Amino acid sequence: MRAVGEGSKPLPPGANVSMFVPRDVYGVVRPRTVDEVRDIVRAFARTEEGPRLQALSTGRNWGLGSREPARDGVVTLELGGLDAVRELSVEGGWAVVEPGVTQLRLAELLAGTGRMLNVTASSGHTSVLGNAVDRGVGLRRQRTLDLVGLEVVLPDGELIRTGWWPHGEHPGAINPQGLGPSPLALFTQSDLGIVTAGVVRLLPRPEAQCVLRLGFGSGRLAEAVDELRRWTAQGLVSGVLKVYDPVSTRSYGGLGDEYLTHLCVSGTERSVAAVTRVVEEEAEESGLFTRVLRSDEHPPAPDDLVARAVERLYAGDPSRNEAMLRSAVGQEADRVDAEGGGWLFFLPLIPFTGPSVARAQELLDRVHAETGIRPGSTVNALDPDVVDLVVSFRFPRTEHHARQAHRALDRTYELFAEAGFHPYRLDSDHHAWMDRFSGDPAARAFVRRLKETLDPRRVIAPGRYA
Ligand SMILES: Cc1cc2nc3c(=O)[nH]c(=O)nc-3n(C[C@H](O)[C@H](O)[C@H](O)COP(=O)(O)OP(=O)(O)OC[C@H]3O[C@@H](n4cnc5c(N)ncnc54)[C@H](O)[C@@H]3O)c2cc1C
């Protein structure tokens, strides 16, 4: 185990790419085994004084605070050193991984097999578990749907396995809820335990895939979104349909000055050929799209980093993500926080309807008019009813520009809250919004009671969702 700077003075503040206020961090502990994690937790449980523990996996939560805790007075528990793929079953469709296992590594292990990982558009060097416990989103679906079991160190040092775990010689069929009340969800976006491993599902690899790129002008936004929603509801679309607005296309290194949809069709050779033709016909008949390009007939141009990456991402391959990351923040994964260009995220869920997406776009226009900052947005359709709208703010990394970008972010929180568009993930500066967004106060009090019961000594620091 390695420990850095555990003392009575905070460490010098670290940099984060979003320029969120750095908190007082009194040390960093890097355990290498689960037993070491348990020992650390027990040591903190022996005292009620002093800094409390904040867990992270690879700490690349860029746009939401990176490694920054939500509050002062923590010791950071970095779990990247627990990096074993403990078990992997291509036949059963699951892998048992530790927090340091990156999406690139797991995806590479699956190359050429009948399974693939639901990968995100972030760097290949981000953690599968870190992203899943923060309820991130991949190109196939939300990562919580991949998470079927968690190994957790509780605040008293006890180790539990919740959800589904393969049982020895006869692993059985995956059943994330198990029997009776399921504690699995208690440990995502949570300060109730420290995750030391998880079971993630591996999706069947489609035999064939075609990605369509459909452009449309801003004047057709609501109608085009309604049409795309119709195709999604009728089963023409595989995975998460994406629509980049022109600002976000450029932010991530894509080409084009109109809205651009990326739509995946996957299945057998014959089903993909048939459904792709149906989508082309529907698009033609709607009269809404300026162009419809198929990945097999019109592969993306070499400098169209977004289309090139997205095409591979649907197939579970994050190897082109680093180019997109460099375009977004100007740096490799290891240097994003120290030297990358400024980057913030706001992540609301909104209804998958043309009027809702158009309304969100109006709100972002208002943010631009009021603050001078033009946010980019990407529609990620999670299902026929729900869009994860990724709103990004890029800014030069100076105090002045950071103030302006943060003002724009604050204003976006306000305007979206008023419109009923609530975020599903929070950044390290906006944890105070939990009370406003978390619905029934009695349910919130219930979770606080659980924290009180499980962690009376406050071993684990209250996080972004406390
Ligand atoms: C260009 C770009 C594209 C991006 N694309 C995506 C995308 O497509 N989808 C997406 O979801 N995000 C995306 N992101 C955001 C972010 O980079 C990813 O979500 C990333 O996976 C999070 O970092 P991490 O995996 O290192 O997790 P970490 O930073 O290690 O963990 C995230 C949080 O989860 C909790 N946590 C982590 N590990 C543990 C543990 N072991 N026990 C208890 N709690 C824990 C902590 O609260 C921690 O702060 C993108 C960012 C950029 C800049």
Automatic annotation (TrEMBL):
It comes from the Bacteria. The keyword Flavoprotein applies. Keywords: FAD, Flavoprotein, Oxidoreductase. The keyword Flavoprotein applies. Pfam families: FAD_binding_4. Residues 19-205 form the FAD-binding PCMH-type domain. Belongs to the FAD-binding oxidoreductase/transferase type 4 family. This is FAD-binding oxidoreductase. It comes from Streptomyces thermolineatus.
